[in-house]
Each structure stands twice: as structure tokens, then as C-alpha cells.
TrEMBL record:
Lineage: Bacteria, Pseudomonadati, Pseudomonadota, Alphaproteobacteria, Sphingomonadales
GO molecular function annotation: kinase activity
Domain Polyphosphate kinase-2-related: 14-231
Similarity comment: Belongs to the polyphosphate kinase 2 (PPK2) family. Class I subfamily.
Gene3D superfamilies to which the protein is assigned, alphabetical: P-loop containing nucleotide triphosphate hydrolases (3.40.50.300)
Name the UniProt record assigns to this protein: Polyphosphate kinase
Keywords, ordered alphabetically: Kinase, Transferase
Organism: Sphingomonas kyungheensis
A family per Pfam: PPK2
InterPro entries documented for this protein: P-loop_NTPase (IPR027417), Polyphosphate_phosphotransfera (IPR016898), PPK2-related (IPR022488)
């Protein structure tokens, strides 16, 4: 059973951060190549508190990836077009093609988090949402998609520190708004919704992984290592063979014969 209080720590990362990060990014670059060559598909989904560091993790995750083969989907309130369909419609449209990876910065879990807490969905709608989400994720995996679900958790004290920095730093002010403080004021309600979410959607095929986010460096390394391990397990990592005809022409062109 997941309890978010177990993931509140401010212990600094003990490894060599830059070296470890670079090694993980090199590995992730190779993994994306394997997905491209094998026609694999993957979805990496992030949930977590405001100012938890999801964006920083995503930035470092994708920095060495070929932009033609991944998309990052920042999920905000649904548009009028999206509201005309069921709440999963906009996520189905964003699922990756063969050879691609989709990254979701927030997700379909809004139905049982913000929509539940803020009253945007009726109780009947968000209660039904658990079953609909589990079915959606089962469909993804049945279709061969590797699904990774991460929740980035930070303590109230650390969140307050980061929100304060967004006020003080003029280049960070664009990241903050009234929603941050309304959500902060309802932390207890969100914690209840989050723990219900874990209890009802932490399935064997699509488990949740909580990342302790109070130390940004430790969180980034933990998240990227987990993602690399899960992605690699979902695709054949044997390097692609060199086409003999390409080899013959290349050697002749480069004067290697």
C-alpha cells in the first residue's frame, strides 16, 4: 500500500550527479533507438504536486532523444472540443505511433484528482473514473504499449520553499498562479484523493512508482533510472544490424576497401 508520507526526505544525492545523469541519458538515447528500430511504443506519465519537479525530470529525460520520435503532452483543462467527448478521448488521440514514445505531464488521472477535489466532476463520474482508467490502461498494454506511471511527491515545507522562490525570481514567476495556492490550501483533500487513486489503480500490469522529490538531483536520477529500466524491459535492446549493401556502398564511397 502506498503512503506518501513515506516519501518525504531531504537527503541529498550521494552519487556523482553530472556523471550519473550523463550515463543515464546515454542509455535512454540507445533505448529510444531500439524503440524506433523495433517499432515499439511507450507512454511515460507523470503526476505529482505543483512545484514537485516534474518538468525538470522531463527535460532531462528527453534531452538526448530524437525529437521526431517523442512528444511531450502538457495536460491542462480540457477545451470545449474535448469536453464534447468522454474524458479519455483526448488521451487516446495522443497515444504514440510505432517507434514513438509519449510523455504526459499530468494525465487522465485528473478525473480522480483535480476534477474530484475541485468539483469539476460529479461523484458518480469520478467514482466511475477508476474503472474507466484501469480499462484504458489495460487496453494500452494489450496493444503493446509499455506504460510507466510516476508520481513525484514533495513535502509541504519543500513545496512552500519552491513557491516562495517563484515569487522572488522574476524568471520563475511565469510558473506560478492562483491555482497553486488554492491547491495548496486543499492539500488534505488532495492527499485523500491521491491515496484512493493509488489503492484503486495500482494494478499489477500498471503499477505506480512514487519518486521522493524533496531533493531534485536524487529525484531526477531515481526517475530516469526507473524509466530506463522499464523501457528497456519492453523492447529488444540488441543493436540493429548493418545492411550489407549499405556497408558495401559506404566502404567504397569512403575508400575503406
Amino acid at each position: 500500500m502506498i503512503a506518501l508520507a513515506d516519501y518525504e526526505t531531504d537527503k541529498p544525492y550521494k552519487g556523482h550527479y553530472k556523471r550519473d545523469l550523463a550515463a543515464l541519458q546515454d542509455r535512454l538515447e540507445q533505448i529510444l533507438v531500439a524503440y524506433i528500430v523495433r517499432g515499439g511504443r511507450a507512454v511515460i506519465m507523470f503526476e505529482g504536486w505543483d512545484a514537485a519537479g516534474k518538468g525538470g525530470i522531463i527535460q532531462r529525460l528527453t534531452t538526448s532523444w530524437d525529437p521526431r520520435h517523442f512528444d511531450v503532452h502538457p495536460i491542462a483543462a480540457p477545451t470545449e472540443e474535448e469536453k464534447a467527448h468522454d474524458f479519455l478521448w483526448r488521451f487516446r488521440r495522443a497515444l504514440p505511433a510505432p517507434g514513438d514514445i509519449a510523455v504526459f505531464d499530468r494525465s487522465w488521472y485528473g478525473r480522480v484528482l483535480v476534477e474530484r477535489v475541485e468539483g469539476y466532476a460529479s461523484e458518480a463520474e469520478w467514482q466511475r473514473g477508476y474503472e474507466e482508467i484501469n480499462a484504458f490502461e489495460a487496453e494500452m498494454m494489450a496493444d503493446g504499449i509499455t506504460l510507466i506511471k510516476l508520481f513525484v511527491h514533495i513535502s509541504q515545507a519543500e513545496q512552500d520553499h519552491r513557491l516562495e522562490r517563484r515569487l522572488d525570481d522574476p524568471w520563475k514567476r511565469w510558473k506560478t498562479g492562483l491555482d497553486d495556492y488554492r491547491n495548496r490550501g486543499r492539500r488534505g483533500d488532495y492527499l485523500l484523493a491521491m491515496h484512493d487513486m493509488f489503492a484503486r489503480t495500482d494494478t499489477g500490469g500498471a503499477p505506480w512508482t512514487v519518486i521522493a522529490g524533496d531533493d531534485k538531483k536524487a529525484a531526477r536520477i531515481a526517475a530516469l533510472r526507473l524509466i530506463a529500466d522499464r523501457l528497456a524491459a519492453g523492447v529488444d535492446m540488441t543493436p540493429p544490424p548493418l545492411d550489407p549493401e549499405v556497408k558495401r556502398v559506404a566502404r567504397a564511397a569512403l575508400g575503406l576497401d
